[in-house]
Design a protein that fits this description.
The protein is of the alpha/beta class. The chain contains 25 helices and 32 strands. The chain has four domains: 7-49; 58-144 and 367-552, Rossmann fold (3-Layer(aba) Sandwich); 147-364 and 575-583, Dimethylsulfoxide Reductase, domain 2, CATH 3.40.228.10; 611-739, Barwin-like endoglucanases (Beta Barrel), CATH 2.40.40. The strands form nine sheets. It has a seven-stranded mixed β-sheet. The protein has a six-stranded mixed barrel with strand order 24-28-25-27-26-31. Strands 10-9-8-12-13 form a five-stranded parallel β-sheet, with helices on one face. The longest helix has 18 residues, at 84-101. The protein starts with 6 loop residues before the first strand and ends with a strand.
Length: 758
């Protein structure tokens, strides 16, 4: 009997070993050094050969017969499978036609990451490199995860990396911190995941029991660590509580005037706002209590505790994915600045603890091998969350970070990696937007909603079917990602696909530089090895590394910007106009944005439904990845995504545990399976993102469609966080829920669309 061959690889949810049997069945086991492997590994075996794999190149019938042009049949049409040469010839011809007739600005390179943990087969890098070789493309900027903060933080602390790239480790927190004040809580469900993977999962256990006192401010008890105190806040009101805490520090003379004078600017403006001198409303605990649902005495007592020792104020990424999302981040920084502990071990401000595994991890901050994309000759871009606006409103103007920009007229969308029908909001609006381009080309492993809304679908390999180099931010290892399976069906990796297009467009040499995929792995590794050698780190050659399967990344000295700044604000200033932390930004104020003034403010939001819906990240998959896997499927209720309701809210609506419900508002509706729990605040419902979008006729409302599977982004609003950032605001919305009494539609999301052979 042949010996099993277990090979190393990695994923965004962690490094692991895998083996395949003669029939292509896959088994996995965690990395031997991982103290807390992610349960998401159990999704892996069922993914590669699932029925929804895209097996062959496929063309939407209406596009194949009628040619390029806008079409409302995207997402509804059947597909015709064709030969690879036919598909590549068609795509190359359309790329050439559009760039000649309309210029490269009319091509949108829509890839949005997360396609692979590998450094070379990173779909976004591959696609953007290819498009740059043919003259460029209209691009996107920032991300859905913390795109609002990416724009705000440079105005306040000089760069986003100053906060997002350097977080105290959990070991440092345990040693130095007396109190963590966690706005958005510390949700450990997110801590399996890091872009590029994590070999040793240590953050989840640390966040679940950080060894210090925690004040968890969240509408969900799942966000509260062991022994933490739960402040059950009304969703979307964190800023009111932050301002009230700051007002107590000011009124009771508990703020650090020396730090504010030495390291900050604009505190006088912010202090006037706290006192109510600018708007007539003092931001006292008594003012905040009816807004946020936290007793005034509890707010006052917490402020005093914060001032009595080393305090870490942390804000999850979820809070900035909302209207006015800049405000909880900016107010959190102001609160930490008033305590005077920014740049001190275990104190100050954190952003993303509980949001991603690498925030608080102990791995090195290290440049990793990366495929160069080259310069983009086209300067046109959009903030990433404005794709529907762009497609629906070519030529329209909009504000962004002090600029007045214009949406390009996109004729061709080329997408590889990522799934906008997971990430984006108001999916019915996105469907209308995707109807507008002349051609939509998608590289996809499975028949996701994005593939179904394409004109040309090119079958891509999964991570299991190719070789790569894998490592995440603050990972401890670089993994030699060996191939586990032969490509399923006729799937090709993105490099192979794009090389074929480059050949047809006369730029193959520029794109490939004469290297194969394996040649690129060796080249990227050797470049990276040479760079580290120059810094005094000796690493094995590529062949040794590949045979070993991994290498331990060297420790790197860290000197975070805010630590340096605290020590010498004059000699090592921040990259803000003042060189200091800007609690009031004259530059932001000069933009004149009423939804993001020049300092942290409370921006009341209209309630437009009886229940707050929180569309958070799922514990059973990464975004939509793995939705066909065992862990995700086992979490479903009657085949639908589970929605969690407080028992009182369920009883008032005649909803029982396990029943199918209709979740709805004026944007759309979906079906979900009811779970009842007192671990959510009354008036709050939780429906995680990532169930594959499954639009079908609504049996109870024949003139409407619903998502039969439970994707909350049919309900979320496609609006920006503000005119400053134009960031994603998809974390919260308002809905109602009712029992579903009509004939129950079958979930079709995990079944391929109608396919025919040419």
């Amino acid at each position: 009997m042949p010996t099993e061959r277990w090979v190393p690889t990695t994923a965004h949810w962690g490094a692991y070993r895998a083996t395949a049997d003669a029939d292509g069945g896959v088994r996995v086991r965690p990395h031997p050094d991982d103290p807390a492997p992610s349960p998401l590994l159990d999704n892996v075996p069922g993914i590669a050969r699932h029925d929804t794999r895209v097996m062959r190149p496929a063309i939407r019938r209406g596009w194949l017969t009628g040619g390029p042009g806008p079409s409302s049949q995207r997402g509804r049409d059947e597909f015709v499978e064709v030969e690879w040469d036919t598909a590549l010839d068609l795509v190359a011809a359309q790329l050439d036609r559009v760039r000649v007739e309309s210029g490269n600005e009319a091509i949108f390179g829509g890839s949005y990451g997360w396609g692979s943990a590998g450094r070379f087969h990173h779909a976004q890098s591959q696609l953007h490199r290819f498009l740059n070789t043919i003259g460029g493309y209209a691009s996107s900027r920032n991300n859905y995860s913390f795109g609002t903060s990416q724009v705000l933080l440079p105005h306040v602390v000089g760069s986003s990396a100053a906060v997002l790239g350097y977080a105290d480790s959990w070991a440092t927190v345990r040693e130095h911190t007396d109190l963590i004040v966690a706005f958005g809580g510390l949700p450990t469900k997110n801590l399996s995941v890091s872009p590029g993977g994590v070999t040793r999962h240590t953050s989840a256990a640390a966040a679940a029991d950080p060894g210090v006192a925690v004040a968890s401010i969240s509408p969900l008890t799942a966000d509260v660590p062991a022994g933490g105190r739960w402040y059950s806040i009304e969703p979307g009101t964190d800023v009111a509580m932050q301002l009230a805490l700051a007002q107590v520090l000011l009124a009771e003379d508990l703020h650090d005037t020396d730090f504010l004078s030495r390291c900050c600017t604009g505190f006088d403006v912010f202090a006037d706002y706290l006192r109510g001198e600018t708007d007539g409303v003092p931001k006292t605990p008594e003012w905040a209590a009816p807004i946020c649902g936290i007793a005034a005495d509890d707010i006052r007592e917490l402020a005093r505790r914060m001032a009595s020792g080393r305090t870490l104020v942390t804000v999850t990424w979820s809070l900035q994915r909302a209207r006015g999302g800049e405000q909880p981040v900016w107010a959190g920084i102001a609160l930490a600045a008033m305590l005077g502990q920014i740049g001190s071990p275990g104190g100050g401000f954190g952003h993303g603890y509980g949001s991603m595994a690498d925030v608080g991890d102990e791995g090195p901050v290290l440049w990793l091998p990366t495929l160069p994309q080259g310069p983009n000759p086209v300067g046109t871009f959009i903030p990433v969350a404005r794709i529907a606006d762009m497609l629906l409103n070519p030529g329209a103007q909009y504000d962004y970070n002090g600029q007045r920009l214009t949406y390009p007229d996109i004729r061709l969308v080329h997408w590889a990696g990522g799934n906008p029908f997971h990430h984006h909001q108001d999916l019915n609006r996105l469907r209308r937007a995707f109807a507008r381009p002349e051609t939509v080309v998608v590289h996809e492993t499975h028949w996701t909603a994005t593939a179904r809304h394409a004109d040309v679908v090119l079958p891509a390999t999964t991570t299991l079917e190719r070789e790569d180099l894998g490592a995440g931010r603050r990972d401890t290892h670089l993994t030699a990602m060996h191939r586990v399976l032969d490509p399923v069906g006729e799937a090709r990796d993105d490099f192979n696909i794009l090389s074929g297009l480059a050949d047809r467009l006369g730029v193959r040499q520029r794109f490939t530089e004469g290297r194969s995929a394996r040649g690129w792995l060796e080249h990227l590794y050797d470049q990276w090895r040479d760079q580290l050698r120059a810094q005094g780190h000796e690493l094995p050659d590529f062949d040794t590394f590949w045979a070993d399967g991994e290498l331990r990344l060297p420790a790197m000295p860290e000197n975070p910007p805010l630590v340096r700044f605290r020590k010498d604000p004059e000699g090592d200033p921040l990259h803000t106009p003042s060189g200091r932390i800007e609690l009031h930004s004259p530059k932001v104020e000069s933009f004149g944005y009423d939804d993001c003034p020049g300092h942290p403010v409370w921006l009341p939001q209209e309630r437009r439904g009886p229940l707050h819906l929180i569309a958070n990240q799922p514990p059973t998959r990464l975004h939509g990845q793995g939705d066909v896997g065992a862990v995700s499927r086992e979490s479903k209720v009657a085949g639908r995504e589970p929605i969690t309701l407080h028992p009182d809210d369920a009883a008032a609506r005649g909803i029982t545990e396990g029943s199918v419900v209709r979740v709805f508002n004026d944007r759309g509706s979906c079906l979900a399976g009811a779970r009842l729990s007192e671990r959510v605040r009354p008036g709050v419902a939780v429906l995680p993102t990532g169930a594959w979008f499954d639009p079908q006729p609504d049996p109870m409302h024949p003139d409407q469609e619903l998502c039969a599977h439970g994707n909350p982004n049919v309900l979320t609003e496609d609006v920006p966080a503000s005119r400053l950032s134009q960031g994603c605001a998809g974390q919260r919305t308002h809905v109602d829920v009712e029992p579903f009494t009509g004939p129950l539609p079958e979930v079709a999301a995990h079944t391929p669309p109608p396919l025919h052979r040419a």
